[in-house]
C-alpha cells in the first residue's frame, strides 16, 4: 500500500465514477421547495420546452367532461421560464397533506427529475411530498418506535399459486414474545400488495397511532386482491405486464373464496391471536367490496369490518357461490353482532349513492353500523383519513 | 339493495374514477417491447418533441471527456417519429442482463411513462427491464420458494439513532425453527439500505441460488452505510433531502465503529448462528472499504470477507481509531486465517490500480485471498455478478 490517495481525491473519483452509472443527468434545480409558510415552488430545467405545466392534487380540481358525465380531475398550472428554468409557486400556503404531482412538458407527462421520491398508483408514477401538521403528521416518519414492513410470500392451495403479501408488524414484535391481533387491509382495483404501504402510508399511520396510545399494537396484512397475480408488476415470475383495466380475477369470487388461505398462513407464521375477536378486515373501493363479501362469507372470522368508499353493489351477472344468498349471509353475519361495521365515503364519490342504498338496506333490517362521511371523492386522501379513523377503533 | 348495476357498468365507473386519481396520462404505447429474438423496441408518444433519444446501459458505451480524464458513459440512440410516436429498436439482440434506461426529450431526461418499473440509484431514477437467460435468470423472480424482504429499524446506541436495515430471510425461515448464518452486505457511496435489494437483486439472486442448491439458506442484512442517515431519502424522519455527494458520515469511521450495534441487534432479533464461522461481510465500492475496515477491526466477527470494486486506500488525512494501525490489524486478521477473503474488480474500474496495489501488499505479506476479475468497470452489472459468485462460497 504505497499509494497515498487523500479522501477528497477519492470522493472526486467516486463522483466521476457515478457519472458512469448513477448520476446521468442529476438534478439541476431544487424541486419541490416547501417554503416556511407552506407555499411550494416547483422547478424544472427545460431550456427547449415551449410550455411547462404542473398537475397534481395540490391544485384546485377542474371539471373534466367525458361521454359518461363530468368528473373532478386534478388542476393544472403553468410554470414561467427564466434562463431555461421553469418555476411555479403556489399562490396560497398548502394545507397539511400528502400530495402527488407530475409535470407536463409540451403535453408530455414527466416526473420531476429533482425529486426521487415517487409512488406508483395503478399505471401512473407520481412524485410526492408532504406538508406536515395536523393529520398529515400521521403520514410522516416521526421519531417514534417503528414497526417492520415485510414482503412475504405464501402458498394459496385454493388458487394453486405462491402469492405475495405486505405484512406490517408493530415495533417490538420480533422480541416481545406476545401474540397480536391482525387487521387485513385490502386495496382497490388496479392496486396490489404495495398500495396501502406506499400511498396508503400504513406503516407510518400505525407507528404514529400506536406511539400516541391511540391504536393497539397490531399486525396489518396487505393482500393482493387480483387472484390472477402473484405479486405487483415487475415483482412476479410473470415479469412486468403493463397495468390494465383487464383484471380477470378481481371481482368474480376467486379472491374471496381463497381468503382463508391467507388467514391460515398468517396464523401459522406470525404470533397472532387466532380468533374472531382479534381479527379485522377493511378495504378501499374494490377492497371494500371484498371486505363486505369475505366478512359475510366467513361470519366467524372477523369482528371488525371497514368499508372505505366501497364498491358495494350486487353483481347479478357474475356467477360465484360467494355472491349467492347475499341477504341470508348478511343476516347470519349481523345476528352474530360484529363489534364494528364501519362505512366511510366521500360526498362526491361516484359510489356515494350505492353506499347510501346499502346503508338504507342495513337500516331497514336493523343491522348496526357506524357511518363516517368526508368531503371529496374516490381519492387516497380519503383512504388515509379512513385508515387513521378506523385503526383506533380496533381490538378494544 | 334495489339498484342492480352490472359488473361491466361498475368497471366502467371504476375506470372513470381512476381518471380522477391514478390514471392521469396513462401509457399510450407499449414500451419497452422485448421481441422474441431479444431485440427491444422503445416507444414514446411525444408529438411536439423535436428530438427524442434513449440512453442506457444496453447501448455501447461512449467516451465522455471531463477535466479529470475520459470515462465510459452510457450510449445514446435517436428514436424516429411517425404520427407523434417515437421508436427505436436495437439493431442486435441484447445479451441476457438487467438493463437501465431513460429517454431524452429535447435534452430533458424523462422516465418511460409506459414502464412503471423503475429503480432509484443515488439521485437518478431509471426504468429497468430484464433480458432473461444465463446469469440474468438469477435476477428474475422465478417459480421457486421466496424469502422475505423486510424493512426493519434498530437502535444504534453508538450513534444514538434509530436506523433502518433491509433484511432478507430465506424461504421457510418463519416456521423452520432453525438458526441461520448471516451475510452482511454493504452498498456504495450515495446508496442506502435499499440499494442491494433493488438494483442488486439480492432477494432474487439468493432465492434462485438457494433453490438450485448452490448457496446455503442464509440471512442477508443490508445496512445504510451513511452514519448520518436514519434511512433512505423520503423514508426517514428527516423527510426527503436531495441525494448529494456531501456525505458527512460515510468514510470517517463512524459507520465502522458502530457496526457491532448491527450485529448485536441481528443476533438478538433473528434466529442466527452467533459466531464467526457463520458470519460474512461484503460490500461494493465504499461498502468494500467498509468491509475491509470492519473485518480487520473486529477480527473475531467475520470468517468470510468480500471486496467488490472496493474503494481500498489508506486515508491518511482522516483521523479515526478505525483507520489507525492498518497493517497490524490486517496481520491479526490474517493470522486468524479467515475462511475466505475475496477480491473482485472489473478491468476498467477506476479503482483497478488501487486494488492491484492492495493485492500486491497482501501477496508480499503472504496473506491468502481469492481474486475474481471481470470486464467493464464500476457498475451494477459487475456487482450482481460478484454477489452471485460470492454467495455460493459462504458457510460451507
UniProtKB/TrEMBL annotation, chains A, B:
Family per similarity comment: Belongs to the peptidase C25 family.
Keyword S-adenosyl-L-methionine among record annotations: no
One matching Pfam family: Esterase
The protein's name in its UniProt record: Enterochelin esterase family protein
InterPro entries assigned: AB_hydrolase_fold, Esterase-like, Ig-like_fold, Ig_E-set, Mycobacterial_A85_antigen
Family annotation (PANTHER family): DIACYLGLYCEROL ACYLTRANSFERASE_MYCOLYLTRANSFERASE AG85A, ENTEROCHELIN ESTERASE-RELATED
Signal peptide: 1-19
Membrane-spanning parts: none
Amino acid at each position: 500500500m504505497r499509494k497515498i490517495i487523500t479522501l477528497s481525491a477519492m470522493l472526486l473519483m467516486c463522483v466521476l465514477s457515478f457519472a458512469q452509472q448513477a448520476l446521468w443527468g442529476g438534478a439541476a434545480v431544487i424541486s419541490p421547495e416547501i417554503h416556511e409558510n407552506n407555499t411550494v415552488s416547483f422547478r424544472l430545467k427545460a431550456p427547449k420546452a415551449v410550455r411547462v405545466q404542473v398537475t397534481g392534487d395540490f391544485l384546485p380540481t377542474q371539471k373534466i367532461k367525458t361521454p359518461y358525465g363530468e368528473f373532478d380531475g386534478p388542476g393544472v398550472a403553468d410554470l414561467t421560464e427564466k434562463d431555461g428554468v421553469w418555476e411555479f409557486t403556489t399562490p396560497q400556503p398548502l394545507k397539511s397533506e400528502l400530495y402527488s404531482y407530475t409535470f407536463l412538458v409540451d403535453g408530455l407527462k414527466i416526473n420531476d427529475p429533482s425529486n426521487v421520491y415517487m409512488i406508483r398508483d395503478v399505471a401512473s408514477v407520481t412524485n410526492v411530498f408532504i406538508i406536515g401538521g395536523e393529520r398529515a403528521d400521521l403520514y410522516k416518519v416521526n421519531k417514534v418506535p417503528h414497526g417492520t414492513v415485510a414482503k412475504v410470500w405464501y402458498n394459496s392451495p385454493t388458487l394453486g399459486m405462491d402469492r405475495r403479501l405486505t405484512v406490517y408488524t408493530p415495533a417490538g414484535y420480533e422480541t416481545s414474545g406476545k401474540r397480536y391481533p391482525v387487521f387485513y387491509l385490502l386495496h382497490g382495483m388496479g392496486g396490489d400488495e404495495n398500495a396501502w404501504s406506499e400511498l396508503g402510508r400504513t406503516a407510518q399511520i400505525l407507528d404514529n397511532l400506536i406511539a400516541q396510545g391511540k391504536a393497539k399494537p397490531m399486525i396489518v396484512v396487505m393482500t393482493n386482491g387480483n387472484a390472477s397475480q402473484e405479486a405487483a408488476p415487475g415483482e412476479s415470475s410473470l415479469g412486468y405486464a403493463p397495468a390494465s383495466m383487464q383484471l380477470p380475477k378481481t371481482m368474480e369470487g376467486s379472491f374471496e373464496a381463497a381468503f382463508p388461505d391467507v388467514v391460515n398462513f398468517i396464523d401459522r407464521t406470525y404470533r397472532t391471536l387466532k380468533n374472531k375477536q382479534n381479527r379485522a378486515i377493511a378495504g378501499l373501493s374494490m377492497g371494500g367490496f371484498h371486505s363486505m363479501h369475505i366478512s359475510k362469507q366467513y361470519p366467524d372470522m372477523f369482528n371488525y369490518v371497514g368499508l372505505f368508499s366501497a364498491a358495494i353493489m350486487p353483481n347479478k351477472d357474475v356467477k360465484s357461490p360467494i355472491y349467492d344468498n347475499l341477504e341470508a349471509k348478511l343476516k347470519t353475519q349481523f345476528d352474530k353482532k360484529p363489534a364494528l361495521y364501519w362505512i366511510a365515503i366521500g360526498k362526491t364519490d361516484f359510489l356515494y349513492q350505492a353506499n347510501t342504498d346499502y346503508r338504507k338496506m342495513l337500516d331497514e333490517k336493523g343491522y348496526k353500523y357506524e357511518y363516517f362521511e368526508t368531503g371529496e371523492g374516490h381519492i387516497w386522501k380519503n383512504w388515509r383519513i379512513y385508515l387513521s379513523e378506523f385503526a383506533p377503533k380496533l381490538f378494544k
